[in-house]
Amino acid sequence: MTRALHFVVCALVVCSALGVVAPGSAAPPPRPLCDACGDSFEETAAAHGVTVTVERSTATVSVARNGTATWVVRNRLAGGAGTERLRENDTLRAEIGERAMWDTELVAANVSSAGVLTLRYREPDFAEASVGGTLRSGEFTDAYGYWNLHGLGADRLVVVAPERTEVGWTVAGATVSDDGRRMILTDFEDRGFVTFVPEDTALGPLLSLLSVGALVAPRIGSNLVAVVLFPTALFGLFVGSVGTFVSRSDGLGARVGETVGTVLAAVGVLLTAGALLAGGGLSLLGGAAAPLFGVGATAVVFGALLRRPAVRARATYWRLVAAGAVGVALAAGATLVGALAFDRNGLTYSLLSSFPLLVAVFALLPAGYAFGRGNRRLAVATAAVGFALSTLPFGSLLSPTTGFGPFVAVFVAVYAGVVAAVGAPLLVVGASLAGSSGDARASPDDDRPTPAAE
């Protein structure tokens, strides 16, 4: 039993660590929206051996009807040797300018006598045509632009709408000019789509919604399959197999029977002790396995309650659904208390991001009851809904699916198997309660009329 518990703990740690660490390690380096502006330009120039100081930076992005954008970046440079080198050396200025801006084509670069460096760029795919003559731009999002945007870069950035259009959707915090043709940003914290709709149209908000919806709807469908449906199907298969075995095992429910409370409490003690002892406290990889402590503590409480025959006799499917919801809250609370009391790292991201699996674990309590009552379809559906709810926070449904290879399939399968293993005792407890509850004395078919009654 100790080896099995240790394996479950390690599997939970690996799954949580991969889910948290892998996306971050694959991200490109952060860059501002205008990386030819301000501090970012200074860093690029320094990499070419030129030291300059940007006192103020502005950018104007003029969008054409075909979605091509022309960037005009103006960096006001402090006087110095670096500024003189850029003014006099056309080749060096062009090399730095071309390197400074990501995914654009440098058109021109010059330095005025007043020390203003003007860079002109061309970006062919800044926006794309969509429904009703609308243009949409994903440049202001991480998912459909540059993956790791960090700040604005410029002190002020202005986006000019194409001819015969006006700004529709804007980024949060942006202001729009009185004529509706310009979107002005002085800060860039929240991401979002920007749309340009035909001028003087009353359907601008609807066209913007349809334009963005046409882009993200297919992504939502593919991400639902990869993030939710596929792992949920695996989990349903695991739970269906275990539940069928439990419900068809002669005498298993009877053997658990009146000792169900004691058995559940003992399992809870093992889980709690395992979370505390395996690897040295709750600090396993920053708290990734800490929910085992909460599950164990809640199992001890439930076990103490189920030792009372009156509690077992009143068990029904919907009461166990409510008990499962209470169990999630208790386990989350116990995990937080345990993390603050025993974990020197405190409330970490890996700890908080592991809470959703509690929903899948405690959904197995009413699922087990349904198995015990012979309703296999309801049992699998209950487990599947709980697991699907637990997977939703792990991925953005709006982001493009980057790939679903063998490694991801193995990871998802292991995660589904680990959650099923942790919740298996609750599945058995639920099945045993189906045999000891008050409504179990009557068969599910007893409500049907007999031939004599007919």
Automatic annotation (TrEMBL):
The chain crosses the membrane at residues 224-247, 259-278, 284-306, 318-342, 348-371, 378-398, 404-429. Keywords: Membrane, Transmembrane, Transmembrane helix. Residues 442-454 have a biased composition (Basic and acidic residues). The keyword Membrane applies. Residues 435-454 are annotated as: Disordered. This is Uncharacterized protein.
